[in-house]
Design a protein that fits this description.
two-stranded antiparallel ribbon; binds NADP nicotinamide-adenine-dinucleotide phosphate; 39% helix; 8-stranded parallel beta sheet; single chain; TIM Barrel; globular; alpha/beta; 11 helices; 291 residues
Length: 291
């Protein structure tokens, strides 16, 4: 069964499951992992200028042999070097990624741009020029949206954020704003509750859902797959990564599993709300405002 796609507010759609080239692959040669992920069935690749490996992501894409037209490629704007424009940086990214356009170009973090409004204007121009099909943001809080939305001709299609049950409650103001403007949240760090905080309050709910889904599907179902189904139930694309072939299959086979029930979703929401663990901001001074 094919991985589903989610509609964006600009008329395009985004594949629900993405393979990321940050975190585990940050600053590393990602060629083999990207080729393997695409060959296994991933069609959405998440890159960033800040990951310092866009060349190898491009090599991995080319070596997969899958036509560009069948892939969805995201990259993200880093800090713009003095004397350069946002367009200069995207053109460099396109050269490294060996493509004429990206599907989605995001502002990686608002605090790296002194004049956020004019940075957004530059992204709007890049969309008009066809260098990117969609534009969006990452790690934005409502106060950052308020800056760019006033006078915007394009509303961001996406806000890529850390999203899992242990930030479910804290993220509600962002999610409410997204709903108002038909902005899609996409999730990184979605497996945090099992990779970094195992044994927490959501584990009984994950186990109950995994057992019910295994009985319903006749397949074994992991806690990680339940977390990814929790994202899918909320129409939130999942950006993940792995170094292991068997985990690629585990992620891709979520497409064959039934949805969580409303009750299972609510149980994870409620038990997740009893704890707060945000991971990706601690290590980085540029995102420490998110805690
Ligand atoms: N916009 C931003 O600021 C931002 C920030 C962070 C990340 N991202 C993007 O999101 C992507 C994914 O980020 P993420 O690493 O946080 O994704 P994630 O889906 O939360 O975690 C994936 C990691 O979990 C491990 N894992 C999976 N199942 C496991 C299990 N059952 N037990 C133990 N370990 C398990 C995998 O390791 P194995 O190799 O062992 O499978 C992999 O390293 C990044 O590559 C990047 O593209 C964006």
């Amino acid at each position: 069964m094919a991985t589903p796609s989610i509609q964006l507010n600009d008329g395009t759609s985004i594949p629900w499951l993405a393979f990321g080239s940050g975190t585990a692959l940050y600053s590393k040669d990602a060629t083999k992992q990207i080729t393997d992920a695409i060959k296994a069935g991933f069609r959405h690749i998440d890159a960033a200028q800040a990951y310092s490996n866009e060349e190898t992501v491009g090599d991995g894409i080319v070596q997969s042999g899958v036509p560009r037209s069948e892939l969805y490629i995201t990259t993200k704007l880093g800090k713009v070097p003095d004397g350069k424009t946002v367009k200069d940086t995207l053109q460099e990214s396109l050269k490294k990624l060996q493509t004429d356009y990206v599907d989605l170009f995001l502002i990686h973090t608002p605090v790296q741009h002194a004049d956020l409004k004019s940075t957004w204007k530059e992204l709007e121009e890049l969309k008009a020029e066809g260098l990117t099909r969609s534009i969006g943001v990452s790690n934005f809080l409502p106060k950052h949206f308020n800056i760019i939305l006033e006078g915007a001709t394009v509303v961001p299609a996406v806000n890529q954020i850390e999203y899992h049950p242990y930030v479910f409650k804290a993220s509600q103001p962002q999610i409410d704003l997204h709903k108002q403007h038909k902005i899609v949240a996409t999730s990184y760090g979605g497996l945090t509750p099992i990779t970094r905080f195992p044994g927490g309050p959501i584990d009984p709910a994950l186990d109950r859902a995994a057992k019910r889904l295994a009985e319903a599907s006749g397949k074994s179902v992991t806690q990680g797959q339940v977390l990814q189904l929790w994202l899918r139930k909320k129409d939130i694309p999942c950006i993940t990564v792995t170094s292991k072939a068997e985990r690629l299959r585990e992620y891709l086979s979520v497409a064959e599993l039934p949805d969580l029930t409303e009750e299972e979703e609510r149980e994870i929401d409620e038990s997740g709300s009893t704890a707060h663990h945000r991971v990706f901001v601690r290590a980085s001074p540029v995102t420490s405002y998110l805690i």
